[in-house]
UniProtKB/TrEMBL annotation:
<dbReference type="InterPro" id="IPR036477">
    <property type="entry name" value="Formyl_transf_N_sf"/>
</dbReference>
<dbReference type="GO" id="GO:0008864">
    <property type="term" value="F:formyltetrahydrofolate deformylase activity"/>
</dbReference>
<dbReference type="Pfam" id="PF00551">
    <property type="entry name" value="Formyl_trans_N"/>
</dbReference>
<comment type="function">
    <text>Catalyzes the hydrolysis of 10-formyltetrahydrofolate (formyl-FH4) to formate and tetrahydrofolate (FH4).</text>
</comment>
<feature type="domain" description="Formyl transferase N-terminal">
    <location>
        <begin position="87"/>
        <end position="263"/>
    </location>
</feature>
<feature type="active site">
    <location>
        <position position="226"/>
    </location>
</feature>
<dbReference type="InterPro" id="IPR044074">
    <property type="entry name" value="PurU_ACT"/>
</dbReference>
<dbReference type="InterPro" id="IPR045865">
    <property type="entry name" value="ACT-like_dom_sf"/>
</dbReference>
<keyword id="KW-0658">Purine biosynthesis</keyword>
<dbReference type="InterPro" id="IPR004810">
    <property type="entry name" value="PurU"/>
</dbReference>
<keyword id="KW-0378">Hydrolase</keyword>
<dbReference type="InterPro" id="IPR041729">
    <property type="entry name" value="Formyl-FH4-Hydrolase_C"/>
</dbReference>
<dbReference type="GO" id="GO:0006189">
    <property type="term" value="P:'de novo' IMP biosynthetic process"/>
</dbReference>
<comment type="similarity">
    <text>Belongs to the PurU family.</text>
</comment>
<protein>
    <recommendedName>
        <fullName>Formyltetrahydrofolate deformylase</fullName>
        <ecNumber>3.5.1.10</ecNumber>
    </recommendedName>
</protein>
<comment type="pathway">
    <text>Purine metabolism; IMP biosynthesis via de novo pathway; formate from 10-formyl-5,6,7,8-tetrahydrofolate: step 1/1.</text>
</comment>
<dbReference type="GO" id="GO:0006730">
    <property type="term" value="P:one-carbon metabolic process"/>
</dbReference>
Amino acid sequence: MTQTFTLTLSCAQRPGIVHAVSSFLFEQNCDIAEHQQFDDTRSDAFFLRTSFVSAGDVDIEHLTAQFADVAARFAMTFNFNGSDLPRVIVMVSKMGHCLNDLIFRWRAGNLGAELVAVVSNHEVLRPMAEAAGLPFVHVPVTPTTKPEAEARLLELVEEFDADLVVLARYMQVLSDDACRALRGRAINIHHSFLPGFKGAKPYHQAFDRGVKQVGATAHYVTPDLDEGPIIEQEVIRIDHSFDPVRLATVGQDAEALALSRAVRWHCENRVLLHGHRTVVFS
């Protein structure tokens, strides 16, 4: 049976990297199906994503062990992934547009992920989650119970064996400790084409300033609020006739689009972190 794998790596730029990778895959009787690479000349860094198939009896542990010598020669940071869909927990509060979009794409088979649970600090979206056959876990959050709530969240990540946590308009700020625990595996959607309007009623602020584009930003969660590495952004053109209600509706469309792309690209191993930035092989 043919197996599909993905190799992602980063290292300092130098000659021979692609040759070494392709030679290794040839020696393992693997056939390259998709290949992308990027040279960041400003930092002398090299990034690569290669998808390949194998008809032989190999697995990720074998590939990782066999590739170690190549990786050491070029001081690579690398990772092999198989074709199993990453398991995703979605966190929400009261707004359901992003959750609804993720559920639709998941059930249609084009999200690139397996939704395994919905976690919320409110009960409002329980019917939506349960109608989709997803476990719904209510974890109330108050200023005094926030540490316990975050501890419960991390327990749920372990219980559901989740690879990714998606904050789909979850209206709570995660603590620095929680952000560090979920580093590189938590994605947030922000209601603005960052940097933008902050605080309460962003679309009212946008209306008052006469904006001509509404946007949204999907980014990794870090201790720096809304400043994590950006994965995807979406903007939609508007004009003077859009009142705050219409602005919010268009904004929700942008949020759903940006978030679903970010989730899919992350789950397809197309996003490589590079300091405060990302390399996205879309």
